[in-house]
Amino acid sequence: MQILENVSLKRCNTFAVEARARYLAVLESAADAGALTDWLAGRDLPWLVLGEGSNVLFRRDFPGVIIHPAFTGVERLGEQAGAVHFRAAAGERWHDLVMATIAQGAAGLENLSLIPGTVGAAPVQNIGAYGVELQSCFHELTALDLREGELRRFDREAAAFGYRDSHFKRHPDRYLILDVTLALPLEPVWRLDYGGLRDALANAPETQLSAARISDAVCRIRRSKLPDPARLGNAGSFFKNPVVSRAQAEALRSRFPELPLFPAGEGAVKLSAAWMIERCGWKGYRRGAAGVSPQHALVLVNHGGASGEAIWRLARDIQASVADTFGVELSPEPRIVG
Ligand SMILES: Cc1cc2nc3c(=O)[nH]c(=O)nc-3n(C[C@H](O)[C@H](O)[C@H](O)COP(=O)(O)OP(=O)(O)OC[C@H]3O[C@@H](n4cnc5c(N)ncnc54)[C@H](O)[C@@H]3O)c2cc1C
Description:
The mean pLDDT is 95. Strands 6-7-12-10-11 form a five-stranded antiparallel beta sheet. It has a four-stranded mixed beta sheet with strand order 1-2-5-3, covered by helices on one side. A four-stranded antiparallel beta sheet has the order 13-19-18-17, covered by helices on one side. It has three domains: 2-69, Uridine Diphospho-n-acetylenolpyruvylglucosamine Reductase, domain 2 (2-Layer Sandwich); 74-225, Uridine Diphospho-n-acetylenolpyruvylglucosamine Reductase, domain 3 (2-Layer Sandwich); 233-337, UDP-N-acetylenolpyruvoylglucosamine reductase, C-terminal domain (Uridine Diphospho-n-acetylenolpyruvylglucosamine Reductase, domain 1, Alpha-Beta Complex), CATH 3.90.78. The chain has nine helices and 20 strands. By secondary structure, it is of the alpha+beta class. Bound molecules: flavin-adenine dinucleotide. Residues 14, 48-56, 69, 90, 115-118, 120-122, 124-125, 127-129, 168, 172, 175-177, 226, 229, 234-236, 335 line the site of flavin-adenine dinucleotide.
């Protein structure tokens, strides 16, 4: 384990906002977890686990220790109950895991291609895209309970996944996820009815589909729709799509007939946050270096040099105008730190 002091986090978050951490603890292997708990025990400091920083917004400096799992690796464990199991280390890049499973002939993660971030963070918000969520292929994970200092295993039930939500998201900083095991079905089921995926595959017949082909199509769509954080700081979607009752959705539809609605389980409806933000006139808006992407109204961007606080103020103004117009509260998807 390496401990660095007074570290700039600008390169550790995809918004590329400046913030400093008092300490950065870089874990080079899962075995460093023991040394980490000893180190923390002697100090009265707040801590925060950070992967690639693609789902956080630092509003100010962090006065404690940032814990960064940097260990990688993907292992094929074998087949069990109609699925092939892969275990990946927390610091592995998510997209590299997707590519590794596809290279080994496995399917199930193709719709989740090109989501930035690490494997360890993926269960935290139950990452999802193109109609698939991590929970559909999650088997179990190992985490260090940082409060009790002991290793724990979580199966799907204990992980308690929801829409961009999990047990880990509801208990921030309690757990350091060390590895994640996925169960990928031996008989793949393609999920194409979302976000123009079927069109991007030129309506290819079922027999010509493969995980690699679907993954390519997902990568093409994502590259065309989302700003690349390497060029323009952002954290992907800044707000979750609000889930409301059917009655509230119908009342809104009568006032805004074009508002897109998606089924969200018994009696619940998901509204398009992007549509509402665009309708309020924010798409492409810019205030100094903070702005809203002209490509996608859900994506807040840093044009260069914006502070986390400036981005957060813009986010609050967007929330207020959507609440005024639609009577709906938008919740941020990234973790707001500070
Ligand atoms: C351009 C872009 C597109 C995106 N598209 C999508 C998308 O389609 N779908 C989607 O779901 N998300 C998307 N995201 C959000 C982001 O990629 C995911 O949330 C990703 O899982 C975050 O990974 P990370 O390693 O960067 O986590 P971080 O941002 O570093 O951390 C996120 C949260 O997870 C916690 N955490 C991180 N690692 C661990 C660990 N090992 N143990 C315990 N807690 C941990 C952190 O404390 C924090 O609360 C996008 C982001 C960007 C920038």
